[in-house]
Amino acid sequence: MWGPPTYPATVVDHALEPGGRVTYFMTSPEGEKFCGLWELTAVDRPTRLEFRDYFADEDFTVVESMPGSSCIYRFETTETGTRATYESVFDSAEGLRTVLEMGVIEGSTGAINQIDDLLARQ
């Protein structure tokens, strides 16, 4: 996971295996924390990762009033590198509408656009 450039993400727990959890928070420019968690359902290294994505409180408990989604991240080798495909399916149209209104497209675009620079530093 990652955050938009102005909301850096900090990973707290990282168990990247089926049944594992990844907990994290993003910090706003004003210092406010936004927590989330992934519950891993499948891991096929290095080609696929499946998980449930939730909003969480500061104790990393799922916030039931916020929408969750099922996610599949796929990675495939191409002639020029790797193609990453990210799929999120929300439990309802209302849940999708909620995250769209929160700016998920802009935030995800800002986060994904950092990947090339991050890999160049590795």
Topology:
Blueprint lengths: L8 E6 L6 E7 L5 E12 L3 E9 L12 E10 L2 E10 L2 H9 L2 H9 L2 H7 L1
Antiparallel strand pairs: 1-2, 2-3, 3-4, 4-5, 5-6
Report on this structure.
A hairpin with a 5-residue loop joins strand 2 (21-27) and strand 3 (33-44). This protein has a 6-stranded antiparallel sheet with strand order 1-2-3-4-5-6. It has helices at 93-101, 104-112, 115-121; strands at 9-14, 21-27, 33-44, 48-56, 69-78, 81-90. The protein is of the alpha+beta class and 122 residues long. The chain contains 3 helices and 6 strands; from the N terminus they run E-E-E-E-E-E-H-H-H.
Assign the structural class, choosing from mainly alpha, mainly beta, alpha/beta, alpha+beta, or little secondary structure.
alpha+beta
What share of the residues does DSSP label as strand, in percent? 35-45%
Major sheet: 6 strands, antiparallel
Q: Look at the structure and give the mean pLDDT.
A: 93
Low-confidence residue ranges: none
* Multimerization state: single chain
Radius of gyration: 15 Å
Characterize the overall form: globular
The SSE string, one letter per element, is EEEEEEHHH
Strand segment tally: 6
Helix content, binned percent: 10-25%
Distance between the termini: 17 Å
In DSSP terms (H or I, runs of 4 or more residues), the helix count works out at: 3
User: How are strands sequenced across the largest beta sheet?
Assistant: 1-2-3-4-5-6
